[in-house]
Amino acid sequence: MKINSANISNTAESNKSELSFEKLSSGKKINSAKDNAAAIQILSRVLSEQGGSVVAIRNANDGVSYSQVAENALQSVSDNLIRVEEFAIQANNGALSSNDRKAIQSEVLQLQSEIEQTIESTNFAGKPIFSGESVEFKVSASQAGPQSLNINVSDVVEQLANFDVSTQLKAGQSLDLAQNLREQVSEQQSEVASFSNSIYRSINANQETQIASTATQERIESTDYALETAKNVSSQLQQDISVALRVQSNALPSGIEQLLN
């Protein structure tokens, strides 16, 4: 019975040694579900969270690029509207001749054409930015809703068509119109800036989540080399002792028999 117990003990220590060697070789504490079933489930959730954060950051970066394109286009429109204002102020001068006013009107028409072209042609990856439709970006791996942006400047070109400096009175009215349109564009710029800031916060939050989940994965998955090396040495030593005891146990009857003879 003692020899059988030694054999069982030696087999157990051999299994422990193999398990430690596997962990040392792979660098992972968990190589199969039998190593730690609960940890496998936690690790699966952590890896899912990491994957979700990666995709969310990719979406958020698209949102940043989208807002940058929109911001540049709105700034161009705003700059042109400032020039329209300046022409309206210039036209609000009783000393101007009709030819002077025609020249100013011609300049304004050119600016109007540039504004219209900017609004109609600005797009992101082929998608028009100033279509008036809301655009959504899923920027969080959690259940939180997507970030949305809706830029509406569709009436700017339409209202600019009413710009008229043919008389001093109309020049004053056109000045009010230009100022109102610039304020509308300014409000849209603020919306884009707010959206962009929100996207950047989401990116930072996702990056922090990635760092935390990576640390958790490392803690769950990575082998503690000092601990596993000590376990492996201990198992090997236990096996050596078991073998020595078995050899000694087998030799004992032979020694007794020799003494009896």
From TrEMBL:
Q: What is this protein called?
A: Flagellin
UniProtKB keywords: Bacterial flagellum, Cell projection, Cilium, Flagellum, Secreted
Please state every residue range assigned to the domain named Flagellin N-terminal. Answer: 4-133
Q: Any idea which GO molecular function terms this record carries?
A: structural molecule activity
Q: Per the UniProt entry, what species is this protein from, by scientific name?
A: Pseudoalteromonas phenolica
Keyword Secreted: yes or no? yes
Pfam families reported for this sequence: Flagellin_N
Origin: domain of life: Bacteria
Where does it localize? Answer: Bacterial flagellum; Secreted
Name the coiled-coil region(s): none
Asked if Secreted is a keyword of the record, the answer is: yes
Hey, which family's this protein in? Belongs to the bacterial flagellin family.
Q: What's in the GO CC field?
A: bacterial-type flagellum; extracellular region
